[in-house]
Amino acid sequence: MTNFLPESASFAKFIGTLKGSSVLVLGHRRPDGDCIGSQVAMTRMLRTQGIKAVAVNQDPVPRTLRKFLGDTPFSEPEGIGTDNYKIVTVDCADHARVGEELKIRFPEVFLNVDHHVSNTQFAEHNFVLPDASATGEILAKFFFDSELGIDQITAEALYLGICTDTGQFCYSGTNAAVFEVCRRLCLAGCNPSMVAHELYEREKPGRVQLLQKFLASFKMEFNDRVCIGHVRESFYRETGTKPEDAENFVDYARSLEGVEIGVLVEDRCGKIKGSFRAKDKKYRVDLLAKKFEGGGHACAAGFNVTIPLEEFYPDLVEEIGKHLEVVQKEGF
Ligand SMILES: [Mn+2]
């Protein structure tokens, strides 16, 4: 028997206690591949155990990810009944990530499965493994350890999570165990080229135009060690796109030679959503994001602030400068 995770046995116990309950599997706002993939896998796994489970998101499932739902029951918050639900969250670093409406409606979380180092352990049971590349990796390892059967939709959903959260197997969390898990997912019916096609070969022209505008906005700071790009609200109108279309744009800012931290700043109705991506863990961009009440991983983090872009930009540059000095002098 494979043993990927020492925690698998205790995790199986939490799942066992859900028997007979109605479960909602919640993901985070602006769901990404790992969020949706983990919701699909968790919901299907619970249902194979005879547990009544439905996946719920405050925001709609993005167009390019809909194919991965298969026949998994997904509901909008309005569609949920009044059962006494047990709540499971996946890929959420804190309770608020599920969205304010869902957080208020479901103040108690039974199980929290996640891989964010900043996870606040907000649930009754917390299954948080920050070394995992994706929540999908944690779930896949647990499923294999527990010898739970995995159907093709589950295998593809888990692979989707790992593929997107490792930046197509490029980020530092990509290791032998990740490939071993993916090998087993392929044996269970996952087709990597189909996943890649759905994710990366179905671009809308508007999104490419949005990307052009984002690339044109690049500003280099700190001797070209930091690249900051922005997306203004007007860009979406001009290109007929939505905020979900700017997903992963920040990777282009990081991709430049010599750049250590890439930054994406999105301006929406006077509110700013920021994303940081570092090439090396030593940059601890989760701590940088924390200065703006955000969080995330050592190499990938984000934040939200309510301030116009012009006013915010100097503060942003100043905080990045201070952060770089600390990294240089002491490290974290
Ligand atoms: Mn994730």
Task: Please provide a written account of the structure.
The chain is of the alpha/beta class and 332 residues long. It has two domains: 8-200, Alpha-Beta Complex (inorganic pyrophosphatase (n-terminal core)), CATH 3.90.1640; 205-329, Diaminopimelate Epimerase, Chain A, domain 1 (Roll), CATH 3.10.310.30. The chain has helices at residues 8-17, 33-48, 100-105, 135-145, 152-165, 176-187, 192-200, 205-216, 233-239, 250-254, 285-290, 309-329; strands spanning 22-26, 52-56, 74-75, 85-90, 111-114, 125-128, 219-221, 226-231, 261-268, 271-278, 295-296, 300-306. The strands form two sheets. A six-stranded parallel sheet has the order 3-2-1-4-5-6, with helices on one face. The protein binds manganese (II) ion. The site of manganese (II) ion (MN) has 6 residues, from loops.
- Count of the separate structural domains: 2
What is the CATH H-level superfamily of the largest domain?
inorganic pyrophosphatase (n-terminal core)
CATH names the topology of the largest domain as: inorganic pyrophosphatase (n-terminal core)
Shape verdict: globular
The rounded Rg comes to 20 Å
Uncertain runs are none
CATH architecture of the largest domain: Alpha-Beta Complex
The ordered string of helix (H) and strand (E) elements is: HEHEEEHEEHHHHHEEHHEEHEEH
Number of helices: 12
Describe the sheet with the most strands: 6 strands, parallel
